[in-house]
Amino acid sequence: xxDGVLSAHLILSVILFAIGGIGLLVRxxxxxxxxxxxLMLNAVNLSxxxxxxxxxxxxxxxxxxxxLVVAAAEVVVGLGLVVAMARRKPGATAxxxxxxxx
Amino acid sequence: METTVFFICALVVLAxxxxxxxxxxxxxxxxxxxxxxxxxxxxxxxxxxxxxxxxQVIVYTGAIVVLILFVMMLLGVDRExxxxxxxxxxxxxxxxxxxxxxxxxxxxxxxxxxxxxxxxAKAVTAPLAEGAxxxxxxxxxxxxxxxxxxxxxxxxxxxxxxxxxxxARRPKDLQPLPEPESMTDMGDDPLTTxxxxx
Lengths: 102, 198
What we know:
The complex is a heterodimer.
Chain A: H1 3-26, H2 30-54, H3 59-88
Chain B: H1 2-22, H2 26-46, H3 50-75, H4 91-113, H5 132-143, H6 147-168, H7 190-196
């Protein structure tokens, strides 16, 4: 693969990361916020694989595995929080989470 | 060939990503997320990471998105949201500016540096192998150089499962969240007016 296309992967990755970040900042539905975090993690995965390819090193692909596991753990805990929150107040948004407010 | 595949997948990935953020219905967001993840799997194939492409489809679309959709159906939050009102003034503009800033910086680095933008010694861990040897290589690395990280990962998953069980358990004395009265004496906060509209 030519160097230009590999660099384009990096640019695609940062655009996707920025889309996920904007969604995380703007949206208030906790489920959509979790999905935006998934987008950001995927963007990072793409950049890891691209870096691995650029440096001819397998570590880039190995680290993607750990990112996948962390993403799965994060989704499990995040959805647990969403369920606990929705049980107390149906239709709650992230702005309604004030139980820990000091 | 690889270039064509890249551009088609990039289009799918970006359209899906934008769909996740701008969809009013959370179910549409989840379906857009599936499109993004599939596009990403094809990009992994294109980069020669066959195992990661398969794992991506199985773990993300097969487990994570299904879990998200399941919770959505369980809670019945699949109704349209009002995206017209902006609870915090200027929040969207600022968020988009931050995003553009990030994209601008990395694009500038990649454009100026080209392939030299990624510095460092080549093939430190092990040189990339092609095809089936690649899978064996990843497995070998996971159980030799990265074995401690693998062990900690196992601990992390256990903690996540226990935490999810504790979080999702129904407590005996379930109290509904108190209505945020304290916010009314904070003056004409835009948040208060929006919350009263629920």
